[in-house]
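FAQ

Q: What does a record look like?
A: Structure on top, sequence underneath. For example:
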């Protein structure tokens, strides 16, 4: 395996990890911004008010995106395993 193939494998792994984490992280950021804005407007500075909605939104996003996440992981694993003979 030459260095370019190793770099390509690493790049593909990082891209897949980013795509898999994106739905959960984006939902957490959006809900966090909305809750932060509401806290600033109402001057309620309770930590649990920010934590619970983000936790619920991230769990919901994970539940909705789980079939897509599993499909992406299976596609990545299949391509990685089938290309093992070409890499050696």
């Amino acid at each position: 395996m030459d260095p370019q193939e190793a770099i390509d494998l690493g790049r593909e792994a990082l891209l897949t990890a980013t795509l898999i984490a994106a739905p959960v992280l984006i939902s957490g950021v959006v809900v966090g911004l909305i809750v932060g804005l509401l806290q600033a407007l109402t001057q309620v500075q309770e930590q649990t008010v920010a934590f619970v909605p983000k936790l619920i939104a991230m769990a919901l996003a994970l539940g909705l995106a789980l079939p897509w996440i599993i499909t992406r992981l299976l596609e990545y694993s299949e391509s990685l395993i089938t290309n093992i003979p070409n890499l050696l």
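Q: Is there anything notable about this one?
A: The chain is about 90% helix and 0% strand.
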